[in-house]
Amino acid sequence: MSLLQLEGVTKSFGAIHALQGIDLTISEGEAVGLMGDNGAGKSTLMRIIAGNFLPTAGKIRINGSEVHFNKPVDARNNGIEIVYQDLALCNNLTAAANVFLGREIRKKFGPISYLDHKAMFEKAAELFRELKSETRPRDLVKQMSGGQRQAVAIARTRLSDPKLVLMDEPTAAISVRQVAEVLNLIHRLKDSGHAVILVSHRMPDVFEVCDRVSVLRRGTKVADKQISETSPEEVTGLITGAIENA
Amino acid sequence: MTDTTQKSHAEIDESITSRQEMSGLQAALKTQPFWVFIALIAIGVVMSFISDVFLTERNFFNITRNFAFFGIMALGMSAVICTAGIDLSVGSLMGLAGIVTGLVMQAGYGIGFGFIACMGAAAIVGLINGILIAYVRMAPFVVTLGMLAMARSIAMVISNNKMIYDFGPDQELFEWIGGESVFGVPNPVWVLMILTVVFWWVWRYSTWGRWVIAIGGNADAAKLAGIPVERVIVSVYVLCSCCAGLAAFLLVGWFGSVTNALGLTYELNVIAATVIGGANLMGGVVYAFGAPIGAALMELIRNSLLLAGIDALWQQFFVGLFLILAVLLEQIRNRGRS
Ligand SMILES: Nc1ncnc2c1ncn2[C@@H]1O[C@H](COP(=O)(O)OP(=O)(O)OP(=O)(O)O)[C@@H](O)[C@H]1O
Ligand SMILES: [Mg+2]
């Protein structure tokens, strides 16, 4: 049984049809690359899976049973973590505070519970180390580079042990060393039975870590192929529309 | 990768994570309240040469008591402003809460009920503000401007436009709380000091405080992170109103009487004090110590002009001047940083 199963997922924003009848499945330990031109609907699909909004039509199943995510926490409670394309960080807070936002580590003193800054700084530092990112947990996000911010957003997905990790262009702004670490992370996630959906415009990344690639064009899925059965040239053709579908 | 490079990586990473950006003092140097505090001291030093009365215990007693009421309200206001909101209704609310307290105590219910009624009235006003802003998504400026008019009007109606000076059986205790002192420090100042420490703790150590600051920074991100943004915003407006209610309770006790004009135009002073204390109207910034320091600066200006023999008509001019200077200072420091 597949971990996540989308059936005819459709999303309209008024007159704009962002997604039309998307079917997609993903199993444990699998990584799917989601590709498509700007505005093809990739982020919209990710946001639906992450519970940002409900689809206009269609079904989402997790381990075979239908779910309705009314808010992001519902998706998180079902084992789905996401790195948003715009990262969704609070500039005025520290890196560690952002990593733990909404899931703060607390200590108890009698009836009073309070933020355990030390534990959060240490755990955040550990996560950044794991990502080989030179991100200081105590720095304000405001003062951080694009790559450091991305590391913060990725570190957030490491707090729980999710079944499915959605990454919306996680490697868009980072250095070669960190891209390798993110790809490494995806490999490790797969090895430990996690599923990953990777949205990326970087063909080599997708071909390195993904088992399958799905292509969206103007809101419809035009291809869903095993990596071993396709080539970067074919995928490029599918994205641009030079190849109708496959 | 060889063993040595791995080790050095680990070492570098270790030094990165444990490196604290700056010491506590350096951090304080970067904050607005610190510089306003320096301004406070400077004005104080100048005044001690100009006036013999300035440094007397009596004058300090008066200054601190006078700004305590504004300081208490500014603590609540800084929470609202931290969410990029504004509450214009706090002055009118003082009138309403003061009259409600007066009516309840005049009817002989005692101070306990008087206090509950005062805070209850404040909480209801804050709840209405908060719900309209958070759930109906109306602009805070408009909602609280409307409430400014409505709360004052209700205070006029229920007071029948009469002054209340009879506070029933607990009159003496009531007047003691607002008007007397313990160990030479006026009671409202004790309240301000305790609340400032409580707020400092809340902003630094409570999850709620962390969430309020996050909402001020990026409400969408806070929402995506699972923070109950609407509920937190409502609670912020209720808190701000309760601070105003508490200030009204103390102020009426000090005056020994209340009219429905209590707190008229106070919202402007409270907002000014909050902004001078380092709050940013764009949200996301809050300092517990900013509220009392901002309120203190405003009262100090008033007091200094008085003692220096300058016409009281100049008072608002200088308050306005310092407000603009404070914001200018903040902008210059921000420009220097980025
Ligand atoms: N909240 C919204 N309201 C209205 N239209 C929207 C909204 N979100 C997305 N859209 C529209 O839906 C379409 C798909 O957008 P989406 O962000 O999913 O594209 P994308 O594939 O992620 O593109 P990119 O590669 O540039 O990130 C676009 O035409 C966009 O304008
Ligand atoms: Mg996108």
TrEMBL record, chain A:
Q: Which SUPFAM superfamilies does its entry note?
A: P-loop containing nucleoside triphosphate hydrolases
- Tell me the keywords, alphabetical order: ATP-binding, Nucleotide-binding
Q: Which Gene3D superfamilies does the protein's record reference? A: P-loop containing nucleotide triphosphate hydrolases
What SMART domains does the record point to? Answer: AAA
Q: What does the record give under GO molecular function?
A: ATP binding; ATP hydrolysis activity
Any Pfam family: ABC_tran
Annotated ranges, domain ABC transporter: 4-243
* Entry keyword Nucleotide-binding: yes
**What is the protein name stated in its UniProt record?**
ATP-binding cassette domain-containing protein
Source organism: Stappia sediminis
Automatic annotation (TrEMBL), chain B:
Show the GO cellular component annotation of the record: plasma membrane
Which GO-annotated molecular functions does the record name?
transmembrane transporter activity
Q: Which residues cross the membrane?
A: 34-55, 67-86, 116-135, 141-161, 182-203, 232-256, 268-293, 305-329
Alphabetically list the UniProt keywords: Cell inner membrane, Cell membrane, Membrane, Transmembrane, Transmembrane helix, Transport
Query: Which Pfam family is one of this chain's hits?
Result: BPD_transp_2
| This protein's record includes keyword Nucleus | no
Q: Does the keyword Transport apply?
A: yes
Superkingdom field: Bacteria
Bilayer topology = Multi-pass membrane protein
Q: Give the location in the cell.
A: Cell membrane
Matches recorded under PANTHER family:
ABC TRANSPORTER PERMEASE PROTEIN YPHD-RELATED (PTHR32196:SF21), ABC TRANSPORTER PERMEASE PROTEIN YPHD-RELATED-RELATED (PTHR32196)
Which protein, by its recorded name, is this?
Answer: ABC transporter permease
| Native species | Stappia sediminis
